[in-house]
Design goal:
94 residues, alpha+beta, three-stranded antiparallel beta sheet, rod-shaped
Length: 94
């Protein structure tokens, strides 16, 4: 984990041991940002809070099923066009 940024108000969490993400950037709230110079105790507390926060995030990606939706929509459209063409042909013969 690395503490960086203008006036030490940004925390960058790296090596999160997550298969989807490699780092997170957290912005410390203005009222919680330590006043410079930052001592080691304040840095340690900020780093621990950042680790705890990121560890508490559980990302479960939703399987995207765009292609089947498009396929079924196209199938419905073609079916409707076919039924319409059959009905038109039937009425035109009479």
């Amino acid at each position: 984990m690395m503490l960086r940024g203008a006036q030490k108000r940004i925390i960058e969490v790296v090596d999160m041991e997550n298969e989807y993400f490699e780092k997170a950037i957290l912005f410390v709230k203005e009222e919680q940002a330590p006043v410079l110079p930052v001592d080691e105790k304040q840095k340690s507390l900020l780093k621990q809070r950042a680790r705890d926060y990121v560890a508490g995030i559980h990302y479960q990606p939703v399987a995207v099923k765009v292609k089947p939706k498009i396929f079924f929509s196209l199938l419905k459209l073609i079916s409707a066009a076919g039924v319409g063409a059959l009905l038109a042909a039937a009425f035109l013969r009479f």
